[in-house]
From TrEMBL:
The keyword Membrane applies. This is Ig-like domain-containing protein. Residues 224-233 have a biased composition (Low complexity). Coiled coil: none annotated. The chain crosses the membrane at residues 195-217. Pfam families: I-set, Ig_3. It comes from Oncorhynchus kisutch (Coho salmon). The gene is LOC109900678.
Amino acid sequence: MSSCFTENISDANIKGPPNHLFADWSSANLTCEAAGNITTIQWTKEGQPLSAGGNILFSEENRKVSISPVKRHDSGEYVCKLTNPASSATASYRMIVNYGPESMTILGRHIAEVESFTLIYCSVQSVPPATFTWLFNGQQTGVHEAGYIIRSVSYNNSGDYRCDARNDLTGNVISVDHSLSVKDKTPPPLSPEGAAGIAVAVMLVVVAVALGLYFGLTHQRNNSTNTTETGSSHAPDTNHGPGTSLAPDTSHGPGAKGQRDC
């Protein structure tokens, strides 16, 4: 009867690699261990069945999983499930694959207005997270965050920025440049009330100019008329001019007087 006894599985655990893992460089061995009689062992990664192929190899009746070389996507939680007719047990292990920094970009405007708020953000993929250093026109800025913040832009902020990203574990460093130009503030758009006020002012100016031209032309026409009338009233009468009034009257000359005397 004792020969039919099956010992329960206990003390399940996964023994993983002792050192840091680096993408495309390191190899990893995961070994599922437990006490008791073990009939089957199944592996999952992030809740999905894990199968052999590519850089993954099973050995020792599925007790051991070898991954060589490790890739970025090999990071995650691995679980082994051990079973026998009487019991089952599980163990988990979280594997971290270090890589980067890589796929680096800078997000932000290239043109900013004076006194505006501006953020230049350095985006990079890295495990563990990268540390950052910002330079402006080749000089250290003292900023060591992913985001470079300018709360109120001035003309002095125009220039070339560089973000250096470093992975302290892999030792890799990459950089990306970004240029920023500063321009004058754009006048705010007119409100409907403001636009209406400007339209009214323009109309008043047009009316004033038209009235000025009208009265100016009228005054000029009146002056021309008065000048013409004045010139006509003072012009000499050529029919009664000096030559006519001083001409001798031959009808009353000495001869005619003599005739009357006779």
